[in-house]
Every structure is written in structure tokens, then in C-alpha cells.
Specification:
100 residues; alpha+beta; four-stranded mixed β-sheet; 5 helices
């Protein structure tokens, strides 16, 4: 498995999902929104590490819905309660509850 790394538009990482290695990209905007929500001021890689459990939870749920082998892109609306649709909000609420 490849270690997470920064790209021009976000942070790339891989996770196993349903016995397959899946590729993900979380946008800088999504990482920054997570940091603001928690009051963190740190670089993007550290924001990823600080929120890794939540990001992986959201990523795996999105990958299960996306059947193709394309890179799954996680945007701020997928991880930030104020920017979410009601469907996405239930996923994040469940993830945050599991972490506390």
C-alpha cells in the first residue's frame, strides 16, 4: 500500500475496501474544513492524520457506492456537517459518534 501523499489539489491515499485496494483523494478544502471545525491549525498531512478515522469511514462508504475503479474524490461537503446534504450528514454523525 502506498503512503498518503500531497498532490496539487489534495491528499492521495489508498484503503482496502471489500478485498480490493481503492484509491482516494481528499481535497485541501475538505481537510481545511475539518481543521476549522476542530480549531486546528496544521499542515494538510497532519490534518489528514488527525482526522484519519473519520476520513477513512467516509471514504469506505463512498467507495461502496462507487462501483468503478476510478479515484474516489472526497470534498468538503462529504466530511463537514455545515456543508452536507441530509444523506451525508447521517454518515458523518455516525462516524463522529463512533469516535467519541
Amino acid at each position: 500500500m502506498i503512503e498518503p501523499y500531497l498532490t496539487d489539489i489534495g491528499l492521495f491515499f489508498q484503503l482496502p475496501v471489500n478485498d480490493r485496494e481503492r484509491k482516494f483523494l481528499i481535497s485541501f478544502e475538505a481537510l481545511e474544513h475539518l481543521g476549522r471545525h476542530q480549531g486546528y491549525a496544521m499542515n494538510h498531512l497532519n490534518l489528514y492524520r488527525a482526522h484519519e478515522a473519520l476520513i477513512h469511514f467516509v471514504a469506505r462508504n463512498m467507495a461502496r457506492e462507487e462501483k468503478s475503479d476510478l479515484v474516489v474524490v472526497i470534498e468538503a461537503r462529504h466530511v463537514a456537517p455545515p456543508l452536507m446534504s441530509s444523506n451525508d450528514a447521517s454518515l458523518t454523525f455516525s462516524a463522529q459518534s463512533a469516535l467519541t
